[in-house]
Each structure stands twice: as structure tokens, then as C-alpha cells.
Amino acid sequence: MENEQPFSNEKSLALIQQMIRQARSNITDSGSGWLLWGTLIFLTCVSTYIFIDIGSENIFLAWNIFGGITVIMLLVDIFRPRRKTVLTYVDEVMRYVNIAFIVSLFTIIISINISVSPNSGFGYFLMIFAILMLVNGGVLKSRALIIGAALNWAGAIAIFINKEFKYDMLIMAGAVMAGYIIPGLIMRAQYRKLRQKDQL
Length: 200
Prior knowledge:
- This protein is mainly α.
- It has helices at residues 9-26, 32-53, 61-79, 89-114, 118-140, 143-161, 165-199.
- The longest helix has 35 residues, at 165-199.
């Protein structure tokens, strides 16, 4: 149209920089989610080990509390008003990956309550944790998450070999430390550096 003003070099450069920042933010992760869930699962595993070691009557108390917290957090996330943002193809794919992960997680929980032994069930947990880590690690180009995925698969095999449930909790705690907490700390540090650069 005749009334449209051509972009100056400064405006063009500013627009390009804004688009780069937006694209970069779509494929970065602050690490907060990994740290939150990793810490919750780690503490739950360690608590369960202690409950078994002291001979508590309800060794799954920590997992029941964790389950309640999880349901509340998922409901808050579902019903929380969201800002209208443009979803990229990667965002859309990752949304389906997360849905598949959550459905698989609850399927394993149901199976443990019906017919699958806790020993096997927690091995399956580490298997699907590893899948989530590997996919996210590939998308985010995070070597820490990819290594964490490998260690979680190794942890799953260790749980299947081990026959004493209380040691499953230590194996799972170690796998979660390697796959959630350490990558979360690394991503947190990288995210802060990236934000500092963007503010310059």
C-alpha cells in the first residue's frame, strides 16, 4: 500500500533481534520444572527408604502425599489462564509428548495398584522418565538430559535386577538426581546467562 512506511535499518535490526529472542525462548528451558519435580521425587524416594528401614506401617505415605501434590499441580496447570502465544511446531509436538508421558505415568500407577509389583512398576517409571528426558534433551540440545536419560534406563535395569524394594528407592533417587536435578541446575545456570545477554 502507498501509505506504508519502509522500515529503517534500525527498525529492521530491532525486529530481527526480537524474532531471534522469541525463537530462542521457545527452545530454552529455565530448568525450574526439572528441579521442582526432581526434588519432590528425590525426597519421596528417600522418605520411603527411611519408612521401610524403620519398619513403618505405611511405607507408601510419602508417595501418597506426592500423588496428591501432583494431582493438585496438574489441575492448577490445566485451569490456569494462559497468555495467548503463537505455538511453534516444536511446541505442539512437545505438548503431545507431555500428554503421552502423563497418561503413561498414571497407567503405571493404576497397574501397580492392580497387578504389577512395585519393584517392576518403579522400573517402568524410570523407563518413561528416560523417554521424556531423551526427547527434551534432543529438542533443547541438552547433553545433561540425554546422559540423564541413559542413566535412568540403567536405573530401570538395576531395579528389575534388584529384589529388595527399599534399595529400589535409592536407585530411583540416584536416577532422578542424575536425570532431573543435575540437568535442571545446568539449565538454570544457562538460562540465567541467556537472560543476562538479552538484557545487554
